[in-house]
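Morning F.,

Quick status update on the modeling queue. The single chain you submitted on Monday has been processed. Sequence for confirmation:
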Amino acid sequence: MRSGHLNRHGIAPSVVILCLVMLLAACGTATHTSERQDVTTTTVKLVKESNAAMTVLVDSVPMTLDGHLQVGGNYASKMIYSLIWPSPFVVMPGNVPQLDTLVVSSAVVTRLDPETVVYTINPSAVWSNGQPITAEDFIQLWHSVIRSSGWRPDIGYRDIASISGDPGGKTVTVVFAKPYGGWSGLFDNLLPVDLYPPTAGASQSGVGAGAGAGAGTSQTGSGASTESNPNTNAGQVSLPGAPDLSISQEFPSLSSDLLASQSHPLISGGPFQVVEFIPGQKIVLDSNPHWWGPPPNVSKIIIEGLGSDATSTLQSSSYDLAYLGNFDQNSLAQVTTQGNVTSMVKQGPEEMQMLFNLGSGQLTGSLPFRDGLAKIINRPYLVSQVIDPILPGSLPAGNYLYANSQAGYVSDSTGYNHPHLKDAYSLFQALGMKMTPLGLPGEGTWTLNGSPVVLSIAWNVNDPWANQAGVLIASQLYSAGFEVRTLPVTEPVFDNSILPSGSYSMALMPVETGPFPSRMEGMYVPLSKSSPFASSQGGTLPLVYGNGDRIDVNDFYDPAVSVLFSHAEIHMNPMRSAPVYQQVDMLLWHDMPALPLFSIPVMTVYRNWITGISNDADGPGPFFDLAEWQIFGVQPGKITAGKHS
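Structure tokens below.
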């Protein structure tokens, strides 16, 4: 971690001593690691630019700018959100949450009974339209999460009993109905109250009554604001102005239509503002004229998707930086064989899991059968074939809640690190399965009640990691005696048809982990039917998978897991919650709702005229230290040919 004041936008620029000869020696250079290897050079005179424009490639441009939607989240989304939406805490390298003092000067737990957190908003923090960032924005986000007409990850938000602001709006007091140790993961990607639909924030106290784009913030008669949630367990806090949970609450439609309707760029609270947005294709960011933090040396960022012809795009000179999660050996080869490029690869915050269908009528609904399949899958071989060629020394995933590279990771996968065919064979026999003709697995076909046992495995064909792993797993299952049907389908079919319909035995899918394991509760603990959200939705609960990017269709539930999550979340000290989360992980290995396979790598590629870039796969990608970047351009009339070694 770099020295000085660290946050996503305002890392104090360090003194950079740059040898221009060494920088230019990078022309014709390509490296796989952060070590630069100079080969041939062209001697030119470079000057540092302070208002440079950059083109950035990502896997896919998001379809919305809403950081709280249940779909559309990916590496690119988080990177973009970090540039336009403020968050009290940001995830720094090493998967460590850190207070962003450009947004909040402090965030302190002032009481434990009831748990009370007081945020002091930076007095200089303003939206790009000049309006201050206030408690109203916190209140409106809370309202929208717990009253949304569509399920969103609200772990922690529904534990809030009340939120209030001081007369100036720069102090936010959050009172919890029950202790929630992961409170620092709340209120990320704040949206300005001015962007919410006109009736979205109406409440008894008149707080958060966003009047639509361009409107000013609202206040109560005293200038203070207070909101409470009567549907929490508290009984400890009784404040007026409870949001009506029977009324659906919509987030702003942060689409191209909204942007087109504005007479100015979309209101933002980061160093950049959105001036153009073509969902799924392109986003153009320009400098925020009201940005109060250290000004970055980049004034314009054009973000585009990699496209279908990744090989040609990566070989071109049309981009300055690429941040990719969906790449393969061929993609890596394209960037390491061209000049003037540095590439860095590291383990990312996602892991590939093989999700089991636990629905009725599925053999995978049987724990002994899932256990047997897990003992068949050769995970070290998968890693050696899929990940090791790109990131040597990688190991199989050993934890459900943390990726291999993250703080808090402990491998609990003992018993599944190597295949155990004989143990699997015994488990299958105990279920009444027979091998026809008689023999060991691999010498015949498994049957049940005289019919072959058929397994279907689905994956997103556009995901290179799932694409490679799916073929290998299908081969292993076939060799073990199963009839296997592969379902490699496009992402829309996978997300919208295969998973919701349950027409699979197993599905390969990336699962995002992070510094807040409580956010993963939605994967393993169905929301109680008596919760405020369930009541307002008539008891129908579209559950989410992981951080909300996927629909959880396997209906896993173990009450012991639910109890452990609750115990972990009440600990205010992460040191005390860590062993509880490890118990959760060990129990998940026993229950086997899915089989973790491997951590998914991410690749950062940039031109060698940019210095100061780090590969942060845990937070907002390489933009976490944007203020430290130095960008150089050729001074006209100073180009000479030369050699350097």
